[in-house]
Amino acid sequence: MRPICWITWEDHRRSRELAKRLESEYLVIKAGGPSGISHMLLALKTLGTLWRKRHHIIFVQNPSRVLAAVAALFKLVLRYPLIVDRHTNFRLGKGFSLNPAIWFVIICSEFSLRVADLTIVTNSYLKELVERKGGRAFILTDPIPEFPLAAEPRRNTDRFTVFYVCTFSHDEPYEEVIGAANLLDNSVTVQISGNYRKVGLTPTAMPDNVELTGFVSNQEYDELLVAADAVMALTSAEWCLVCGGYEAIGAAKPLITSATETLKDFYGEDATFTGHTQQEIAAAIEDVREQGMSLYERGLNIKKVRKESWARDFNELQAYVSALSGLSSATGS
Q: Which of 38, 51, 81, 226 is geometrically suited to a Cys-Cys bond with 150, CB 3.0 to 4.6 A?
């Protein structure tokens, strides 16, 4: 079987985990400078890497759409097998734009979808989208992460901490979460991760039971997550599987998430679903708090079942990669 090389312009937990499980070489290509110049430098560095690794099976992470397009373009010349691990960057929910830069990345996106041997996505909504655009898609969610230092759950309800995984993006109802916390008494603490400064929030303006963590290290993030009593991850984007959901399962924590069809289909009975009004979010938090230990006791079994399901999907991907390697060798590419 050909060796595997995973190329990315952004170091991402999902990419690191999948590359490790595929026993792949993992290369993060970096370049500084203004956006246009850095993209040119990144493309040039990537071309050199693709030439050196042309006898490998090439995986690339998308984002960047430009990286995926560069890899697809040179696949036509160098004939290496190409698999793109695609995140949810399809401009879904965004309107028409006359911006030439937007059209450039759209062209890059459409081109890489058609040329890649396989595009990996996280749910059936995106799989159908890729296939409508002429690509071949495979569903593989994020691997369930491990948190070896996970805290024992509290066995009383005197204090209850919800860790809200947030990036302060337009699809995340962070203002409603803050409002929901204000409806709850101070025995409930809502910790909110992410760069709150980019949306103009300040810790001093928060209710007493809301903590803005800001950017923290990976270790600090994991410690906050596993010490919490519940994890919350919310989105209004119908096509998005929230990463915080995987992390909740990995830490065996109760998950509160949005009632989109995609999330309800994926998490099913393993999560508590909520709408995005302050009252609905507050009610979901109270519901999880009241269920207490019964949810924690289910958490370990949920984690076991989800890991087994993911392993079956991953084995199917590995079989495809092996077949692709054999086909490429047979055709002399």
A: 226
Instruction: State the pTM of this model.
Output: 0.79
> pLDDT > 90: what percent of the chain?
69
Please give the single-letter amino acid code of residue 148.
P
Is residue 140 a contact partner of residue 315, using CB atoms and an 8 Å limit?
no
Domains of the chain plus CATH, in order, are: 4-140 (3.40.50.2000), 160-305 (3.40.50.2000)
For the chain, the maximum distance between any two Cα atoms, rounded to a whole number of angstroms, is 68
